[in-house]
User: Fold this.
Amino acid sequence: MHLNRKAILAAAIALLFVTARTSFASGPDDKDKVLRKLDVAAANFHSTSADFEFDSVTTDPIFDKDIQKGTVYYERKGSAFQMSAQIREENGKPVPKTYVYSDGTFKLYEKLTNQVTTLSKFGQYEGWFKLGFGASGNDLEQKWEIKYLGSETIDGIKTEKLEMVPKDPSVKKNVPKVTVWMDTERGVSLKQIIDEGPGQYRVSVYFHIKVNEPLPKDAFTIKTNKQTSFISR
Assistant:
């Protein structure tokens, strides 16, 4: 696997289809109301688990799509935050991988090669890992230019659609825009479309979402053995 910060950042933001109703016109007051609802939800947020499907699409120079399926976990205790994405399959084949972010360090475990790759000093991206899962409206306003696109219903759940452009130029270079469909009552994202630059985007869908329920004890644990190889970057 070719591992780079652009791919990791995009996956993390993701690390996230059904028919939706047409959104309505909205103004600044509507956006503020949505963000303040997210402030309230974030204050009560402790953990989330959800199943996901990530569709990575390339349209140029030729069309290609990779589909990953698995389960994601998020947990916040005070100021401490951690997340993991456990991928079960890629394009219908078993390709087990585990992504874990904790204490400013990002790790990827690839079971088929029995290898752990560690990226340190990743704390600057913590806000992106929280996107759509436990982030307050204030958190989002600090890192994104936000446009409110109205309400849509996904699978019977009312969501608020936000278009967000990164304020950090280094992030914007790799991820020009993200569109999220937020369930503001629970403070979670049901769908995300991540623009990864010309000819590339990722669609993330989350379902079977559970908020503030106990997580598996090994949710953030990478299981290795004596044969596991370790790489640091």
About this structure: Helices lie at 5-13, 28-43, 126-129, 137-143, 169-174. The longest strand covers residues 64-77. The chain has a mean pLDDT of 86. Residues 5-232 form a domain with the outer membrane lipoprotein receptor (LolB), chain A fold (CATH 2.50.20.10).
